[in-house]
Amino acid sequence: MKNNTLNLLLIFVFVLGFLGFNSLYVVTEGNKGIVTRFGKVVRDSEAHLNIVNPGLHFKMPFVDRVKSLDVRIQTISSSADRFVTSEKKDVIIDSYVKWQISDPATYYLTTAGGNKTQAEELLRRRINNSLRSQIGRLTIHEIVSGRNNHNDDASVEDNDFDSVDVAVASQSKRDEVMQNALKDIGASAKSLGIKIVDVRIKQINLPPEVSNSIYQRMRAERDAVAKLHRSQGRKEAEAIKAHADREVVVKIAEAERQARTLRGEGDAEATRIYATAYKQNPKLFEFLRSMDAYKNSMTSGKDTLVLDPNSEFFKYFNDINGALK
User: Fold this and answer.
1) Which residues are registered as beta bridge partners of 200?
2) How far apart are the first and last CA of the chain?
3) 253: region left, alpha or beta (phi > 0 left; psi from -120 to 50 alpha)
4) How far apart are CA 178 and CA 201, in angstroms?
5) 140 in helix, strand or coil?
6) Are 190 and 182 in contact (CB under 8 A)?
7) Confidence of residue 259 (pLDDT cuts 50, 70, 90)
8) Which of 43, 84, 65 is nearest to 206 (CA)?
9) Other residues' Cβ atoms within 10 Å of the Cβ of residue 104
10) Which residues, other chains included, contact 62 with Cβ-Cβ below 8 Å and sequence gap of 6+?
11) Is residue 222's pLDDT more than 80?
């Protein structure tokens, strides 16, 4: 009898513990809970969905189910998609969106019971439509450079800004696209119980066929510029070389002129000195001149002179005083 009572007591304790365990649930921090009973959401006295905050809570065991919704900031990284600009040219844009559940009840009802995949798919469509509308009003230059396509009269090249208000906060075209997309998507996302925190363009690329044609055009332009620089360099080189050659010719001519002048002045000075010296003793001058004449006419030792021995040329051969016979 005691054994049966003990067994019944153990069974009662086990069942009570099992029921108690299934009556408790925990909603972790950063989440919100929604309780469903027999597949229908539990509502409060005012027919609003009963949203459960983080913490330990009770529910009816085996009857109630708890759906946890992550209310932290989520990120949707959209795959790169092709957009058409105002010039009817294609660009490939990669973007992402930061979003957060702002109204768990609305989110739960509009996304088939808090289906995150469905919520992200709905957001992707709206993001794509908004960006397509924004990009369709801009040129490739405005999208890629992030600036307006015209120059400001105040003169910073390619740095035009759009005034947000009288106080001046300015932004680029790319920032304007993201801000407008944030407003558009934010307004439509409210109906899903979602708050859009940020919209960002990660990367902008051109399609391969467009990129190749642009690279070829840029290369042709750079080649043309390089050829122009080379031709200008050759022209300047020829001008510098011609100038240097002219300077060389002028300097050489000037040097030769100065050399001839100095040589003439030297010869004139030598002649003057000789004349002064020889004028002091004319006979010595005649004697030395005759000796030079003998030396110059008889250098080889085989010279033959056909002259009268009594001619004036040989006067110093017959007499050292130069007397003729």
Assistant:
1) 96
2) 193
3) alpha
4) 7
5) helix
6) no
7) very high
8) 84
9) 20
10) 22
11) yes
| Cβ proximity of 117 and 125 under 8 Å | no
Q: What number of residues does the chain have?
A: 325
Q: Which residues contact 318 (CB under 8 A, 6 or more apart)?
A: 309, 310, 324, 325
Structure tokens at 72: 């932290």
Q: Is there a contact between 34 and 51 (Cβ–Cβ < 8 Å)? A: yes
Higher-confidence residue of 134 and 293: namely: 134
Phi/psi for 124 (5° steps) reads -60, -45
Pick left, alpha or beta for residue 301 (phi over 0 → left; psi -120 to 50 → alpha; otherwise beta): left
**Tokens representing residue 234 in the block:** 């050759």
For residue 248, the Cα-to-chain-centroid distance in whole angstroms is 47
List all residues 6 or more positions away from 23 whose beta carbon is below 8 Å from its beta carbon: 58, 59, 60, 61
Q: Is the pLDDT of residue 1 over 60?
A: no
Cα–Cα distance measured from residue 169 to residue 161, given in angstroms and rounded to the nearest whole number: 9
Task: Supply 301's token pair.
Answer: 């030792």
- Of 231, 207, 201, nearest to 131 by C-alpha is 201
Q: Over range 5-28, report the average pLDDT.
A: 70
